[in-house]
# Entry
Amino acid sequence: MTVKELIDIIDVKIEVMGTPNGYHPKRLKPKWERLTTDSEKLKVFIDYVSNPVPSLGFKSLLKDELPHKTLESIIIEFPNCLPLLKDDNIKQICIEKFNKYKEGVWYMNEKKRFDKSLGF
# Structure
């Protein structure tokens, strides 16, 4: 995976992250749209997913049973992006975030069930 491919995945995830009458990425989306280079975007993404404290958006999306809409889901669904992040702990941080919530545990179990190669 290239940085450009990862940025495209993140762009789409942020674009579809909102829910009707529910969560809207009102802080993340405007900040993301102001970034001009892929390196800036990659840094923001890394900062976001490597924070061990779940964001309000993460909690809201899990509460609405939409773990696949979180940015952390990119790490789980596209593990080939990990070499671009240059941080071996990010995957474990994301797994721990999901495991704090029953919807996250369900999501992780579903991912394991359908893709045995994920290794978590």
